[in-house]
Queue: 2 jobs
Job 1
Amino acid sequence: MGEFEVHRVRFFGLVPAGVRCMAYQHRGCRLALARTDGAVEVYNFAANYFMEKAIPGHQARSVEALCWAAGERLFGAGLSGDITEYDLERLRPARTVDGFGGPIWSMAANNDGTRLAIGCEDGSVKLFQVVPGGVQFEKNLDRQKGRVLCLSWHPSGTHLAAGSINFIRVLDVRSGNELPQRGSKKRECVVWSIAFLSSGTVISSDSFGRVQFWDWERGTLQDSHTVSTSAVLSLAVSEEEDSIVVGTSAGATYQFQLLPVKAGGQEKRWVRTKPFQHHTHDVRAVVHTPTALISGGLDAQLVIRPLMEKVQKKGYDAVLRKFTFPHRRLVSCARKARLLLFQFSQHLELWRLGSTNKTGTPHSAPPHLQGPEHIYCSCVSPCGSWIAYSTASRFHLYRVQHEGDSISVKKVPGVPKLLLPAYQLQCASDSGRLFVASDRGSVHVVQLLEPGGCKHLHTICVWCCSGTREAVYLLASSADGNWLAAVSGDWEVHIYSLKHFKHHCTVPTYSCAVTALAIHPATNNLFISYSDQQLFEFSIPEKQYTAWSRMVQNSGLHKLWLERDSPITHIAFNPKNTSQILLHDVYMLCVLDKSLPLPDNNTLLVNQSTLKQLSEPARRRQLHAFKICKKFQPLLFADLLDERCLVTVERPAVDISAELPPPVQQKKFGT
Amino acid sequence: MAALCEAFTLCGLGPTGGVGLGSGLLALEPGADPDHVLLTDRGRTATLFKVSDQKPLGCWSVKHGQIITCPVVCNFETHEYIAVHDNKVLRIWKDKDVNLDKVFKATLSAEVYRIHSLPHAEPLVLFRGGGVRTLDVLLEAPQQEIENVISDEVIKWSEAFLEGQQPVLIFVTEKDGDFFVYIQKLKMRSLCKYKLEQQELSNPLCFTAYIKKQIITLLCLYSSNSVYKVLIPLQQNSEEEEQTLSKSLLLNLSISGSVLKGTSFVVLDKDHVAVLGSLAASGEESKECLTIWNTKFQTLQASKELPLGTSGQLWCYGEKFFFTHGKVLTVVIYKCETSSLAAAVGKLKDSQTSDLSSFVNWNTLGDEELLVSCQSQQSVALKSESKMMLRSKKSAVEDIQPDASTIGQFLLSIKDASTAAVEDELRQLLSKAQRPDFQAAIGCVISALINRCKADPMFYPRNFLVQMIQKRELSYSLCPDLMAVALEKKDVHLLQICLQRFPDIPEEITYACLKVFLSISDDYLERTDVDLESVISYIDIEPNNKEVKTEVVENGFSTELEEDGCDVTGMKETHMMDSVEFCPVGPQKAALLNAVLHSAYSETFLLPHLKDLPAQQAVLFLRYLHYLYVKCSEKINTTLPGVLSPTISQIMDWMCLLLDAHFTVMVMLPEAKRLLSSMHKFVRAQVRFYSELNKIEGSLQELQRIKCQKDSQAYSIEVLELI
């Protein structure tokens, strides 16, 4: 196949924000996760843990607690003192209600999701009723001194356990009266997390590294386990209440299980069973699903550790998963101008790639941003002269002028008022148009005018034809400017004709989330990758799957390909060879050659190093379609600049950990 | 493991219930069907039982006034029953006959002792006078005269076997406390008489016998609570002279202090006997019990208490014991499986059998045991100076067992045959095809050879021994005396091979080898044949040899004093330099010492012995180790070239060990001083060198780290090749 010149970029200084809290919705198998920068993400466990939705953060909006309530409604509460309901279709905060109790430290929903309890800075616990269209204040429970750091409902919904500094209180929800206080200590002890079991046991974890089991009626300590010398920050109970997981500030998680003292006996005790050390920093959030322990830490890692005794068969769910990077593309590339645009949460960086023949250093020209809002999406046009980005409430377009090595960025005035936010931005290959993905499945088409203007051309809306309310989160346009493919949150892929600004067809529905898509410049075939690692090729002119795609579905993809960890986030094509497609995920880069036979499960999937050792005829026999390179890890972006030139953007884990605050000092032998 | 299973009652024996009428049982004989037994009581009744159904199938009685004197047996060929009443009247009947008065009757001229019925053969009738007739011969002329062969001896017990197609009858008689064994072979018309070796203060109570491979094994239960074994070869030239049969102890019936007074016993298989008797613990009332013993391991395997008492009779047919227990005839089913050592461990053990099992291979005991017991009996016979016995015994073995006995026979011949003959035999033995137990057999052969060597200083089949050790996977424990003899004979080549081959040489022997090797002069060694493979690649044999030799000749000293001689001549410095370059010992000695270095040892056990090494030898050995150490250090990989050459760690270990053992001596000894200081210098230089290496390693590690850092630069343009 030949050699590529690889521009290996490692200067993308992305530091993912740490995980602050998590909430798991059992019915929908979805995990909501809030980061320290206020961003909220929803992972769909049914779709191979794909990050389905992402709501960027806001400088003023921190999230201290997340709750699923009333079915599939997601609520968050934070130090701003507001309870926020998130609109998961339009991916933005929908409504906020002030708690009137100062910063909110904790929030808990009762078992049937009809009530929310919040614990406030002023020591009050307030109850809210979840009503259609928002939440409604119900009552105040007795107020105490000291912030309420954690809350837990009794499964029956009659009592609440609240943990604060030095105290654990159990509150009667109906009367609002408070039951006797438990556990007063001389030294300040912060109760970080609490759980109320149906048996009446209250489990608390505190800053002394203890996990304690209390009898709430008598106020007596039943059992105490010291798991760590540092604080135990988080705690979660399984649905059966026979297992709990705790996370410590030393990065370790521990499982406790309620086990019979003697085999077959009646008497049961809580026993610390499994320790795990997946994190380097505080484990601020843990979740106990029926089959896995999930932990999220300040090191930005989300770790899904399956409980092997609960997993029925060896498959995708039986493997440890670690996610550090979002399942979104944060880099866009101007192929012709050889520019890279890096999207950070609150700023952008534009870099020019160097070349081998002259020693030009790449440089950056970050456009300055104002405002507290975080960026939803950004893009640079292929010619490199336009930069666009969007926040929750604003859409910005910049004209970039290159004068030798220097760059000047000028804001384009008179940007059309669009329905915001924009979820994805895509520039046409001739840089003449900008496609703005919006909610309700609509796409705005903006014409870019020289020397620095723009005009709203049209809004394509499928809402009228398919009725979707979900936002479009992925876009792909064809090189000839005729076609546009858009994926909305319900995973439907719509294809529009740009000539007539009308809906062309819909790709047959597939029961998994789309992770990336692209239209081939020569054949106008739409190439789609799904979160279950399947690959499809759909011919837009013929409105059907191509023969190659059918062949792939018939013979099936290689087992190792399907068992990969992370989704494909970008697809690119070789402009000179129509059969070659570039795909990448976090751990590999793959050039898919459609002209070669597919590998079956008996052949080696990653065979590049083997092939290098073979003679030419033997090599020819061993060739298969997937040419995988794992040299670049973790890979955030890869693109083909031209036929023989690749650009890769890596973010080494070492560099991230170097930018994190130092973890809890642990004495290691010999240091 | 043998075990007693469930018990059930076959019939009552009381005057009211069933058979016997209270007078007890005469005998129990197998019936025509494996499940049938024939019970004869001491009165006038015989009953046929089906055991599994616990019910009688038939019952026959003689008239009032008559009495059955000989147990009823079944003729397996014709399914007829034969009985003798009133000593002389023979009756033969069938199942359908009811009244014994009306069945066939023959009155004989002599009193019948017993009738023995054998499968596929005519029943044998043994008369009280010792005469034997087959039934058909007897019936042709019932009144024929029966000879009296035993004069006034009384038959105590008899048994019949079928060997090949010919019936063999053995019976034991007693007269005035002497017991005699008669073997009657009917076809051959031969009768052999043996005298049973007498035992003081005890006499045989009960006998049982089995035949295997032409040898009758007679087991006797003595009143001294022991079971003895007597082997009687069947092929015996009938000589007029009466021969004495020697017996060997098979089993001592004692269980941790208490003694089983046996009354009767049966053989279950080659390793198990069942004994019925009363167990008398000291100070306690004796209890009757049925026991199963393993003769191989001398252990009690199962026992069952019989509180109601027995008649002292025990029969065993088809994995079932029959005995009277109280007033009933009880049947006990037993299981008897091949015993393993592990199964028997933990139970009682007796040391009496050690003479039996000196080199028994547990896996192939069947034939081996016979061979061994033959041999042990042989030695007994030798002691009793019965040359005749020896010869006849040997011939018997030769004639009958051509396969199994070659080694046994050879073992015997090793004792006295000429060297040439033995070597010839050995050659034949080695050329034979491999047998599974050949390994054990070779062990026996070598042990026998070594015994001969010990007894006869002229006898030493060196070539054979060397060949054996080189070819077979032998070990020290298989032939423990071999190295001792080799040490005695100063056979250094054999010792060298042993040190190289044996994995389990005791430290004492290793030390002895070392001492011998160090003490033998190089002159002597030069003439001997030593395997030089381990030294040939690092010692320049020819010139060095010459030099050492000339020096020895010039000085007139022995090699050990060579260094002193040099010291005296005043070429100290130069020679010390040389001593590292030249090997302090000749190549032969070096090869032998290498073999010692190569052998496995444990420091704890070797150190006490090593302390006994004479100082001069210790210095010489240390000098050689030092030389090896320097040689090793010459190469970058610190290994000596060649096969079986010592490794640097072996050299260092021995060096430390030797210094530990002789530290004070070394300090005191003037000639060791220079060696020690030279060693110290060399070791110090080495330590310095390695500490330098340490530093380099540190810098290289740093370099590695820098290279890693370099890898993580922010931007690079690279070339990626995809195929």
Job 2
Amino acid sequence: MSAAAAGTSKAAHGDVAPKKRRGPGALAYLVIYNVVMTAGWLVIAVGLVRAYLARGSYHGLYYSIEKPLKFFQTGAMLEILHCAVGIVPSSVVLTGFQVMSRVFLTWAVTHSVREVQSEDSVLLFVTAWTVTEIIRYSFYTFSLLNHLPFLIKWARYTFFFVLYPMGVTGELLTIYAALPYVQKTGLYSVTLPNKYNFSFDYHSFLILVMISYIPLFPQLYFHMIRQRKKVLGHIEDYSKVE
Amino acid sequence: MDVLALEAKNVTTAEAEKKSAPRPKPKPPKKAKRTVFFEVEIVDLKTKEKLLLLDKVIRSLSIPTDPKWYPARQSLRLDPKAKCLRDEDILQTLPVGTTASFYFSDLGPQVTWGTVFLTECAGPLIIYLMFYFRLPFIYSPKYDFTSSKQWVVHLACMCHSVHYVKRILETLFVHRISHGTMPLRNIFKNCGYYWCTAAWMAYYINHPLYTPPYYGQPQVNTGLYIFLVCQVGNFSIHVALRNLKSQCAKAKKIPFPTKNPFTWIFWLVSCPNYTYELGSWIGFTVMTQCVPVAFFTLVAFIQMTVWAKGKHRSYLKEFRDYPTLRSSILPFIL
């Protein structure tokens, strides 16, 4: 669900909010962070392409980029810290939610349920995430340096039309594929009786997660569309004048 | 002298029903040689559209409005970013010239605090009992309408029910609420939370496979005593606070310990009602040894600490001589 919308909260602030409370040290750190993340996701992209060319098929490409994917997606949790500390003007809750949902899919679904790793749906969301993140992190890098090429800004607010549904589809299909294995093995589940008088059914929890996409996905999607109008809208006005 | 001189002129009202009764009431001077007239202009906060212009206001009159815009729903401010004016504010004491501009915004449908409290508390009471009596469709059909063989389960039901009955009675007879209303959507939020957590707790405590506490009867008894002591304490504080309010309706006073030993905690804490409430739930957690109960206690602790800190801060702001020994909710700690 966070496929293309991971930066929605920042979309509202990215080009608009003045970067007041940030010192030069924080600025340097953020530039380095965003450059590293861009590079990381480029590595994943290159890894996917090379693996495809080497194997000649789409299947099982996950294994070739498993480690960098885990590393860089988990590293994105630093962004929650950035918001909490205040060097990035975004909501902690919103960023937290977006990052954690990605991390949940990476570790609690794809990593934990080995049988889904060879599914094509995994490739679907990994590709969506990769393209989105490369654009997003380069967007932030250039924004911080005040040299944002229009192409990047346009890409960020246009590609999501396809990437976001693509990512959501990949995520949902992956969770769906994981369900029978989770039920069979009772993964991450706790049953009664036990001395803490608590139970948790991971299978039902995953179904609830899937259902939660229904109200949340349209909200985030339309938010991005509104942001697009705001950010790119005036460009079209200029062209009309000419 | 007390003649009501009032003319209302409608200036560009897009919808006629957006008239509002200006709440700040100017007090007419008793023996003034000349009366001071105020001109009041009401502007919509969002659209900045002028809704109403009243000139020659000495004492306000309740203009018959559309019942939809009852006073509790109106918010009038002096400045778009300022806080709302209160009902008791007097026009003459406000920092305005002879022409006052108020910004009007609609607070949305309102519901009284009493209503919210009652629904919040009635829900868990009924829901817990539904699980206690093991109504159909909750547990496996073979357990329908059966009763637990464990004494602690019956005890927990009694404690939980007593707690909410006490709360309902306090809402009806003890509490004196200063703020009349809150937005309607709060009732859904609050009730949703209370009802869902009550169902979650009740499910496990009344489950056929419930495991009694690890240390057995001593643990249950300890939990029970803590719970009872804190319930009595909580009630004592509510009574003490109500007595404080009833003595002097408008002015605020610092609460102090009374002859009741349960109120002696006022020496150390500003909001002992929250302290006792926390204690009750800790007692209940110990008594039932149930993770959902522990979770509920933790969330309650966080929320009550936020409220206690706010109250403590407002006490410090209001009273110069506020006792320095007091903390907000936990003696010496928080």
